[in-house]
Amino acid sequence: MHDLVHDFAKSVLNPKSSSQDRYLALHSYEEMAENVRWNKAASIRSLFLHLGGGISADTDMLSGFKHLHVLKLSGYDVMFLPSSIGKLLRLRLLDISSSGITSLPESLCKLYNLQALTIDGYALEGGFPKRMSDLISLRHLNYWHDDAKFKMPVQMGRLTCLQTLEFFNVSQEKGCGIEELGTLKYLRGSLEIRNLGLVEGKEAAKQAKLFEKPNLSSLRLDFERKSDNCDEDVLEGLQPHPNLQKLEIRYCMGNKIPQWLINLPKLVELRIEDCQRCSELPSLGQLPSLKRLYLRSLDNIRSIGDEFYGINTNEEEEEGRSRASGSSTRTRNSFRPLKNSMYEI
């Protein structure tokens, strides 16, 4: 993908370059037909197609661009992605985010070299194609949908090259469980995992292998509002890699937050919301990088005392006796408070 962008930049900066005919921007169905008619389409590598009048769902015209690597299809009158898209076997990048397309044809799943797919948010009314997991070269799935009932592609675990995945909805449907995340070891950036109340216990949660994903910087763990499973055990099994910088936990019905949370030395922001049964927090004051802390709707937590910094009453008594005898080896200042931090409780 980076090589394609580099070549495109060179062609723009050097109009005399021999590669200038590999990049084409068209603004009408007629222009596209003309390029196919004069056999110019075969040399095109990147096509930027803006069609104000739309495109036919069954058109075969795209197949004329048989060596195409990049296709950006835009225009809100473009309501369909032609089934002939499946003939562009060399396609690596497909961007339909600025179109009116609301469904993807099954032929898309023949694009075994596709590396990046960008879709407008909320666009896919009928979900992904059934054989989406055949796109084994896919690295970036740029798509967001905030409905926890939205169906994920079956057997996503086959997409082992995947780096960008904005959300994952856990389902009880075969091939849509949390274990599908286990093989996606290259995931990076932000990930939101929903419906965690459907996960049955700590061992099942461990199959997501979040601890083995060092490139994830932001993680949101979302449970249902009502769950019959032991959310506390599930959360225990979802321990992320120590590189995590931002963490959000919502609707967990466990009695306490796991102690692995204080083993996240790079954590900058923490949100714990609507965990109404939670009565115990870890010693969050020991997190060395924490700057922003949001605690909201934690109904069972009445107060936050010295245990926030890892201090308990017995330790204070022992420390007092030690100071009195002149043999103190640790003072209260050895616990680092949250400096320059933002609290919302």
From TrEMBL:
Q: Could you tell me the superkingdom of the organism this chain comes from? A: Eukaryota
Q: What InterPro entries has UniProt attached to this entry?
A: LRR_dom_sf, LRR_R13L1-DRL21
Q: Where is this region: Disordered?
A: 315-345
Q: Where is the composition biased (Low complexity)?
A: 323-334
Q: Which Pfam families does the protein's record reference?
A: LRR_R13L1-DRL21 (PF25019)
List residues of the R13L1/DRL21-like LRR repeat region domain: 178-297
Record-given protein name: Disease resistance protein RGA3
Q: Which organism is it from?
A: Coffea arabica
Q: Give me the gene this protein comes from.
A: LOC113688071
